[in-house]
Amino acid sequence: MTRDTLTRLGSSYVQHGSLNDRVYLMDLAPQDTDMIIPAMERMAQKYHYSKLFARVPDSAKDQFCAAGYQIEAHIPDMYGGREDGWFLARYPEPSRADPDEPRTLTEDVLKTAKARSNTRKNTCPAPGFVIEESDTDDADALADLYTDVFESYPFPVHDPAFLRETMDDGDRYFVVRKDDRVVAVSSAEVDASGKNAEMSVATHPDYQGNGLCPALLSAMEKAMRRSGILTAYAIARAAFYPVNITFARAGYRFGGTLINDSQICGGLESMNVWYKSLNGEITPSRG
């Protein structure tokens, strides 16, 4: 499968390509705020992408909104525990702004997840399952697990070389082992300067129902706190009950929905944003 490209525009990082059919501003360098919007527009026009997507701090939000971007999600105090974060989108192809998933389904997923937020699940793994932090030696096993779980994914997690690269860049992975086999994995994409981390969890289909994702998430949160991370967040499939329920049960708040945003499990899907303060209470999203 093709993979999207991670590159620089100025000093900022963007991902773009035909897999997700978008330009995604992942990390905005403050000095690039004035040039980044037209640079992204030129890239979208050149490759005929149907979505422009940006994750930016509050200081850049108004410029993007003035350029026609709309708010899709909001995380209070995302950057350094002080500055809000915004997920903003513009659609050169208007049809992409219409969710592919039935609205009744995504609304019920969200309603169900929120209703389960007060039913916290045991975060200790069952006997025989062992949680530990992973390293590059596990890259092949992690890639195999991701291949078993996800037909497609926004980033090339099926490639061991990509996983090793992200580990070298500071991302952290945790696994559950059963008889020396990796049966579940979680990752934290760490923004050390912003003191936030994007969390993800996945369990092999043969081992679902054992509470492995909540256990992994709890272990990963403890590690992030020890590392000085203040805000954790997740981007979860909007039409998939288990992952939304997992984050709601773990105390994450709903921050918004990214429409037809990511290539996952064989097609473009909308994604829900969930967030949690790892350092006390956090102000609910106003977005």
What attributes characterize this protein structure?
287 residues, alpha+beta, Aminopeptidase, seven-stranded mixed beta sheet, six-stranded mixed beta sheet, 13 strands, globular
Structure commentary:
By secondary structure, the protein is α+β, with helices and mostly antiparallel strands. The protein folds into 2 domains: 93 residues, Aminopeptidase; 175 residues, Aminopeptidase, CATH 3.40.630.30. Helix content is 28%, strand content 36%. It contains 7 helices and 13 strands. It has a 7-stranded mixed beta sheet, sandwiched between helices. Strands 1-2-3-4-6-5 form a 6-stranded mixed beta sheet, covered by helices on one side. The longest helix is centred in the N-terminal third of the chain and has 15 residues. The protein starts with a strand and ends in a 10-residue tail after the last strand.
